[in-house]
Structures are given as C-alpha cells and as structure tokens.
Amino acid sequence: MYLKQTSITLAGLAALCFSQATLAQKKYDPGADDKEIRIGNIVPYSGPASAYGTIGKAIGAYFDKVNAEGGINGRKIKYVSLDDGYNPAKTVEQARKLVEQEEVLVLFTTVGTPPNSAIHRYMNQKKVPQLFVASGASKWGDPKGSPWTMGWQPPYTAEGQTYATHLLESMPNGKVAILYQNDDYGKDYLKGFLDGLGDKAKTMVVAQASYEVTDPTVDSQILTLKNSGANVFFNITTPKFAAQAIKKIAEVGWKPDAHYLNTVSSSVGSVLTPAGLENSVGLISVQYMKEPTDPAWANDPGYKAWLVFMQKYYPAGELTNLFNVTGYNHAQTLVQVLKQAGDNLTRENVMKQAASLNLPSMPMLLPGVDIKTGPNDYYPVERMQLSKFDGKTWVRFGKVYGR
Q: With a cut of 50, which residues of the chain have pLDDT below it?
C-alpha cells in the first residue's frame, strides 16, 4: 500500500514538473527569437506628408534607448522602418517586404489613413499585427471585423464631435465652412463633426470644400470658403495643407471668429511655425499629449525625461515638434505590450497583450488621459482636452472629454 501511494505521488510530481516545463517553454512566431524582436514600420519620409517622417525617427531613437538599456526581456529590438511617400500603392509594396522578406513580428505605427487602408485587409489575412496605427480612423477599432488591427489615438469621429460640442456651446448660430482631405481620414472627421451638430448641421454648415493629397495647394478652396460668408472654419488637413490654409486665410484677410484645427496638424514646429505663429493665434484644437512648447511642463518629470531622451538619442529632432512626442508615446506603448508578452512572442499573444493594457498614466500624456484596452475595445486613447494657441503654445481649457 505504501509503495503504491509513493508511486502515485512520484507520478503526480513528474506530471506537475512536465506541466510546468511545458508552460515555461518559449514560443515564437516569425520575427522573434531568443535574441531579437523584429519590428516593421512604414512612414512617409518623403512626399506630401513628409512632416510625419520624424515620428519614425523618434520611434527608432526610443528603441535605441531600450536596446542600450538591455532590451526587452533580454532581447534587442531590430527596427526596420521604410518610406512609402504617403502613397498607398507603395505602402502595399513595403508591407509585403516587411512581412514576407523581413518577417517582422508586427507592423507598428504605420502612418496615415490611406496607407493603412491599403494594407488593412492584407495584414488581417496574414494574421500579422497592424498595431497602434498612426491614424484616428474609426475602422481601426473593430476587433470583430479586423482582429489584427488596432489604433492608438482618439478616433477622428470623437474629435470632430468634441469641436461640434464646443461650437454649439459657444457659437450656436455660427456659419461654418469646412475644408477636408478627400479620403477616409477627412471624411471621418467630417462625419463626427456633422453628427455632433445634429439637426443644426443643415443650417450651420454653409460651405464644404475638399482637396486631394496630390494637389499642390489649397489656395482656391480657401478663397471659395471665405466667399461663403462663414465665420467659423473647420480645418481638416494634414500638416503641409494645414500650414498653407492658415497662411492663406491671413493673406486674404479672412478672420473667422472660430478656427478649429484637427490635432494631427497641431504641431507648433512643423505646422504653425511655417504658417506663421502670428497667423495661428486663436486656433482651437485638442490635446491628449503634453505639448513640448508649453511652459507648464518645464518642471514636469515626464517632460524632463522626454527632453533627456531627445538630447541623447535624437539630438537632430526638433524639441518644438509634437510628432516627436507621438513617436515616443507609441514606442513606449509597444514596449509595454512586449514586456507583457514575456517569452510568448507569438503574433496572437502580442495582440492579446495589446488588448489587455491598463496604464492610468504615461510620462507624456496629459493628466487624466489614460491608455486602456480590452478584447472589445481597440481604442487605447479616448480622452482629450480643448486648447487654444496663444502665439507661442497651446493653452488647455475646459474639461477633459471622452471615456
């Protein structure tokens, strides 16, 4: 009897040890091994949206920092960042190269709505994470329809609704003119804004004009919108065209009582400075990240850490450029996901961890703005605050909107 019990006990211990050994086994998909994690990225370093190129450089600099400090769970990051010129056809070519030749574990922070739309179906068919897309299009938050794609920033529709809410509160009888990029990016903002105005959209919106990303300027559109008699302007543009629009409005003497500028073009360094800081006074946008030109953050630990990072790892990067904060925040979020993934570096587990984030704060996010995801919530950042440009920096006002 004693021998039988001992045999059972030993057998149980052996089974337990085998189970623990099985659990402890490392799991890899293409793009990861004991020494390395390969991360792919596509950014317009050239072309009409090249102002976004610094996002890719800031990400690379942050990964340099991570590698210098020992990597993630003992693995170094190999970062492969390619240029698509903001041309969707080129994005497809580069995505195939990263997935099929470079065999990256994830495609991370690819910039722009049209480029990401071009590879959206491909990435989900290949079951390769299209993670923390640098675009606020609402379709990046569809875990059932596109389980391998996740956004990062607040949805454009929610931002558009925020401007509409403010307008209804401050100028309920305003006459609105809208300039938007003729693609999913522009139309998402437009939909959110019109939905936010509700029935009043029919009477308040007096003019709309669109442009193509390949257009040389938006000068003619600005003249048309000015002549509509509108006293409110909603500027839904990427950086190059945002700067053009702000400058042209000043040149033609149009002085709308309210000028809303989408946050993707709110960088002081890459948009407002070329447009003329004096021409940008009074612009209204939203913030969810700490604006690096805001003196309110001078003694903030998070800002100080970002400043040290920039000076050491990206000294060529402009300290006034919000896009360098964007790259920093995106990279930190991915690092958190990879840390959570541990030794289970399969693409499925990476997506599982990306959908299991709960970060009450991050060094360069505004107070009150968190990162939170779930299996049915693919919008990591959903809170934002209105801000107005005073000629030097963005000054926040009002409450924090969003979840």
A: 1-8, 10-11, 13-23
pLDDT (tens digit, 9 = 90+) per residue, 90-110?
A: 999 999 999 999 999 999 999
Helix segments in 152-218, DSSP class H: 156-170, 184-197, 201-204
Looking at the structure, give the CATH architecture of the domain made up of residues 156-287: 3-Layer(aba) Sandwich (3.40)
Q: Do domains 36-154+297-383 and 156-287 have the same CATH topology?
A: yes
| The CATH number fitting domain 36-154+297-383, selected from 3.40.50.2300, 3.30.420.40, 3.40.50.40, 3.40.50.1820 | 3.40.50.2300
| Best CA proximity match to 67, nearest among 356, 350, 331 | 331
Joined together, the tokens standing for residue 67 give: 């590698």
3-state secondary structure of 236: strand
Element (H, E) at 234: strand 232-236
Average pLDDT of the chain, as a whole number: 94
> In degrees, to the nearest 5, what angle opens at C-alpha 286 toward C-alphas 369 and 382?
35
Q: The whole model's pTM is what?
A: 0.86
